[in-house]
Amino acid sequence: MFEVPNCPKCNSAYTYDDGSLFVCPECAHEWSLADATPSEEEKVVKDANGNVLNDGDAVTVIKDLKVKGSSSAVKKGTKVKNIRLVDGDHDIDCKIDGFGAMKLKSEFVKKA
């Protein structure tokens, strides 16, 4: 059986279908079945505080990070400019002064 999706506008769970349309009784938003099927949505990357990150943002490292193959670490408070979001476990690609090109996990940075 087809499960009625939540409202895409207000995320209400009280939606119902009305023929070929879905209707939200809370915000009166109507959408069709073609709109309700999820297409390939782009991945939303969030920092440690829950802020959405975008390409070109500046972030700050929130804890000391060990670097493989190096005896030094990226220190807490290091500011990283002009990040690029990529797919994978390490979802931030950037250049850090003194270290070069690196990949970081978004859970260890906050938006600057």
From TrEMBL:
InterPro entries, per database record: YjdM, YjdM_C, YjdM_N
Similarity-based family: Belongs to the YjdM family.
Pfam families: YjdM (PF03831), Zn_Ribbon_YjdM (PF08274)
Top-level taxon of the source organism: Bacteria
Protein name: Alkylphosphonate utilization protein
Classification via NCBIfam families: phnA
Chain ranges of the Protein YjdM N-terminal domain: 4-32
Residue ranges of every copy of the Protein YjdM C-terminal domain listed in the record: 45-112
Organism per entry: Pontibacillus litoralis JSM 072002
